[in-house]
Amino acid sequence: MSSSSLRKVGGRPISKIWEWFVKGDLVPNSKGYYSATCSFCEYHWSTAKVAKLKKHLAYECTKVDSDTKISILMMLTNNCDDSEDDSYDTSTTSTTKSKKRKSNDRSQTHIDDHYENFPTPLGKEDQINKVLAKMFVCCNLPFALIEHPFFIEFVKTLRATYNLPSRWVLTETLIIQEISRINLKVNRIINEENNMTIAFDGWTNPTGQSIYDYCLITEDRKEYLWCSKDYSNVPHHTGAFLGDEIIKIVDNIGPERLAVSDNAPDARVA
Ligand SMILES: [Zn+2]
């Protein structure tokens, strides 16, 4: 169509796909298709369309090696500009950019249908688990949600081969890992800072616990949560009590690196 004239000038560039197929004869009256034989399983096409060949290696061929299969899946997911593709809309001329996008979107949906059945690599699973843990904590979601059938259905619709961790793994492993990772990071930052301000504030969480947060504010006004203390068992959070608490924390950080600030009225006494 719009790109056919462009293609005629230099002929179609050779598609990468032919590394894995034996190219046969040009099929007469076929807009330039060839016959082809799969180098792995020797399946033969009298008229070979590039899209079919890719699909064969990605999902059908029983003898293809896994490296090749992954390359093909990458080609399919990136929808790389394979010039010999069957979609004639896939031109690189600027006048047909919008057309190209549309064509890509359509094939993307089609590819996703297959791609979601491809195993989720371990690295990807770790990445998803991290984001999942962060979401549960930061959005204050009930941990039971992770085992709710509707939530599982939602996740499976997005990525069928990803297995959600159990509630136990979420709370006992993933969240602990994420907390450790953040603590390490905060410690590293705080260790390099001087002239920090410590601020603290108390609040009651949804389960009725009395929590005090101690934050460190760096010279460039960045705020880090240093620690949280549960004072539910302390009957009166008096100035003297909080004073003792803050002295312990200040000693721990190094008093010479700090100034004290207050958010709660009690803190003035301290
Ligand atoms: Zn094959």
Automatic annotation (TrEMBL):
- Can you cite an annotated GO cellular component? nucleus
Q: Which PANTHER family match?
A: ZINC FINGER BED DOMAIN-CONTAINING PROTEIN 39 (PTHR46481:SF10), ZINC FINGER BED DOMAIN-CONTAINING PROTEIN 4 (PTHR46481)
Keyword Ligase (UniProt): no
Alphabetically sorted, this entry's keywords are: Metal-binding, Nucleus, Zinc, Zinc-finger
Show the GO MF annotations. Answer: zinc ion binding
UniProt keyword annotation of Calcium present: no
Q: Which domain of life is it from?
A: Eukaryota
What is the protein name for this chain? BED-type domain-containing protein
| Start-end of Basic and acidic residues biased regions | 104-116
Extract the ranges annotated as region (Disordered).
83-118
Subcellular location(s): the record lists:
Nucleus
What lineage is on file?
Eukaryota, Fungi, Fungi incertae sedis, Mucoromycota, Glomeromycotina
